[in-house]
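REVIEWER CHECKLIST
Item 1: Sequence provided? yes
Item 2: Single chain? yes
Item 3: Sequence as submitted:
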Amino acid sequence: MREFSKLAVFDFDSTLMDGETIDFLAKPLGLEEKVASITERAMAGKLDFFDSLSTRVALLKGLKKSVVDDICRDLPLMNGAKEVIEGLKAKGYTVVCFSGGFRNATSPASKELGIDADFANILHDENGILTGKVGGDMMFSSSKGDMIVRLQNLLSIGREDTLVVGDGANDLSMFAHADTRVAFCAKPILKEASTNIVDTKDLREILKIV
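Item 4: Structure as written out by the authors:
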């Protein structure tokens, strides 16, 4: 039985996965550019995360849940994602995924990658059709910070043994509770809060840091 003495928390979109889930979902509706523009401003810290999420999800109203699930099962994982998870687990890390996106995407990816738990949002549907509403674990800019503190308390792991990896402004709240903070191909606002910067699209670079 493995002993877990450290915690690693990864963002999903543009970190474990190469792209933004909601941009992929907007494509069948012809709204990819509109949604991507809002996503870009939110990740740069120029929009309130809750407002931007609500606005973008509202644009998905009418999309079939089956289409969402099909798209989410086929998202491109970031180069080195599987190797970095395996490497961190070998070093005694519990590995968790936090996402301001959706469990439709994080759950299958987490299963494939061997991630211990995923926390994300849920797209509401009625009779298999998206209503344009969303709820869940990661609705606010403060959500990742709130959740990481709960996990640290639950696992009895301090910030000195916590690694966080992300790319956008909504990762700032979890960066506040970890001593090792990796900005991965990140926005300037997150790089300023990081201890380490990786600008190469290869998650295996993180194994050199830990």
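Item 5: Key structural point noted by reviewer: The CA atoms of residues 5 and 156 lie 8 Å apart.
Item 6: Recommendation: ____
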